[in-house]
Amino acid sequence: MYATVPDLLRLLAVPAFAYGAYRDIETRRVPDLLWPPLLVLGVVCLAIEGWNALHAPNAFTLRAFALRTVVSLLIVGGLGVFFYVVPVGFGGADAKALVTISVLLPTYPTYYFDGFVLPHVPTTIRVFALTVLTNALILGMAYPLYLLCSNAARGEVASVMAVGKRVPVERLPVEHGSLLEDREGTHFTGGLDLDALRMYCRWRGVTLADLRDDPELRDPATLPAEPNDPTDGMVTKGDGDVRTDGGTTTSADDTIDTGRASVDTDREGNHDDPWGAAAFLDDIEGSAYGTSPASLREGLDVVTEREAVWITPGTPFFVTLCLGLIVAFTYGDILFAVLGAFGLV
Questions:
Q1: DSSP letter string over 72-129?
Q2: Pairwise CA distance, residues 72 & 18, whole Å
Q3: Which among 64, 68, 115, 171 is most buried, taking Cβ atoms within 10 Å?
Q4: Alpha carbons 333 and 145: distance in angstroms, whole number
Q5: Global pTM value
Q6: Residues annotated as region Disordered (predicted)?
């Protein structure tokens, strides 16, 4: 294989992104330590290519390099910065990945083999970061189709079958996403985040099975006096039992300070803070992924009353970004190939 030094160095992005995609699938978390080395690598590659373009005999080489770098940084990097500041459906890792790609992959790499060249389908503008992004977006569109077909094949028909899946409640401690139904069985988006559910269970020192088996745990008087660290809700090994070491067991005689003189109940036994949802959110001094006391109570009622629920796993964009990167290095630009097939480019 023949390629320039920067193009060979850029291949290191593939194993790095593959590792990040693996972590995203397993935990929905991508280590922040992934980005600094890739950014440094990107700056080194830019410096080498910039030096070569500056000393190239053809002045167009420098202008083309500068234009592609600026387009990559402004469009792809700018999108990453925007999604980091305004996280509308994008995680922090997704946004950082876009910024990293804009620095590391502004120009098209070329790899010469005996008899063929990769990428197979380059674009006219030759901004490689744009190819990775458009590939990821196109590949990401296939995920709802996969959900739709897999749900239909299992006979799981619902209005949310293109964005969710139905899973046994006992699987929720190791699933990612959020609930897609309420107590009335209405399907909707924006339900209880499963990371927040894990945080709540860890904070109380109970498992989801405990909550389902013991209706008395709905009583806020059973909250522990010394709650556990709720963590960030990440799935970890052994999440069939999400207790946290150092927690205390719950009992009606061992209560957490909720800021009230007593816990009130009405004649039907309904508590003023069912499940201790408000006490939990007050104690952690955070939103737990946008969870409100009302949505936490609603979600806990659903998962303790049902045997199976609809959840939305979301589209792991980092995974599709990794796939888009691999396709870009090998096949090339999917969108450009489709447009070319219709004679549009």
A1: IIIIIIHHHHHHHHS-SS--HHHHHHHHHHHHH-SS---EEETTEEESSB--SS--HH
A2: 22
A3: 68
A4: 21
A5: 0.81
A6: 214-276
What stretches of the chain adopt beta strand conformation (E)?
111-113, 116-118, 165-168, 178-179, 308-312
| 312: helix, strand or coil | strand
* Structure tokens given for 79: 């999108």
> CA neighbours within 13 Å on the CB side: how many for 331?
14
Cα 24 to Cα 9: distance, rounded to the nearest angstrom: 24
Residue 277: band (very low, low, confident or very high) from pLDDT cuts 50, 70, 90? very high
Q: Are the beta carbons of 45 and 33 closer than 8 angstroms? A: no
> What are the tens digits of pLDDT across the range 147-198?
999 999 999 998 899 999 999 999 999 999 999 998 887 887 778 999 999 9
Q: Can you count the helices (H) and strands (E) in the chain?
A: 14, 5
pLDDT at 254 over 80: no
Backbone angles phi, psi at 165, to 5 degrees: -145, 155
First-to-last alpha carbon distance for the chain, in angstroms, is 29
Helix residue ranges, H only, the chain: 5-10, 13-27, 35-54, 59-71, 78-85, 92-104, 128-140, 142-153, 194-204, 208-213, 277-284, 293-305, 317-330, 334-341
